[in-house]
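Summary of Year 1 activities. Much of the first year was spent building the evaluation harness for sequence design. The harness presents a backbone, in tokenized form, and records the residue chosen at every position. We chose the following record to illustrate the format because it has been used consistently in internal testing since the harness was completed.
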């Protein structure tokens, strides 16, 4: 759902910015007079010397009692929506439990934290992996995984990723009873001091 909201917001922002940019460009370059076309009466910029908001427009509502509370409330709503959107980007909901089909018509529940710990422990036993963080995301019947690997200086990222997929993640797929487990892996190398050659 969040991905869809992001696409809609980016699309709306793009349409608004493109429209505003076209309005400013037409007015600033005086294109309607140069190219001989007319503009609607509500067009905000009529020529290169027009301003975004005239002096009369700036002071039009100042004396009204409702103006400043309405402005503050509107800005407050915008700030709250922006904060909600930002927190939604940062906080990805972790999966608390998975539903595993036992094969006999019954279902078992597997704790997400237990599977995360098991995959993390198995990944850390791989050669060259210093630390592994695992988070399960998605739905109970269609889990996804996020894995953060910290590799030792001597480790080969390609080998580590291959073994992670063939061993730790394959065991996780078997345990969860799923045919596929989409995984996003972030790899970084452990920091170490430079070695002096004497």
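For this record, the design step produced the sequence shown next.
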């Amino acid at each position: 759902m969040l991905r869809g909201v992001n696409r809609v917001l980016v699309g709306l922002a793009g349409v608004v910015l493109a429209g505003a940019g076209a309005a400013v460009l037409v007015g600033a370059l005086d294109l309607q007079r140069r190219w001989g076309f007319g503009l609607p009466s509500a067009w905000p910029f009529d020529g290169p010397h027009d301003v975004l908001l005239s002096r009369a427009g700036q002071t039009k509502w100042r004396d009204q009692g409702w103006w400043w509370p309405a402005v503050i409330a509107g800005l407050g709503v915008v700030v709250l929506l922006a904060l909600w959107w930002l927190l939604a980007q940062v906080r990805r909901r972790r999966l608390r439990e998975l539903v595993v089909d036992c094969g006999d018509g019954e279902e078992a529940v597997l704790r997400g934290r237990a599977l995360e710990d098991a995959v993390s422990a198995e990944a850390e036993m791989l050669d060259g992996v210093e630390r592994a963080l695992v988070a399960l995301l998605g739905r109970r019947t269609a889990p996804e995984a996020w894995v953060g690997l910290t590799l030792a200086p001597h480790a080969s990222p390609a080998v580590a990723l291959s073994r992670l997929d063939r061993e730790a993640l394959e065991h996780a797929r078997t345990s969860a009873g799923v045919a596929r487990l989409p995984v996003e892996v972030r790899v970084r190398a452990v920091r170490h001091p430079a070695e002096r050659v004497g």
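The first strand starts at residue 97 and ends at 101. Quantitative recovery figures across the full test set are reported in Table 2.
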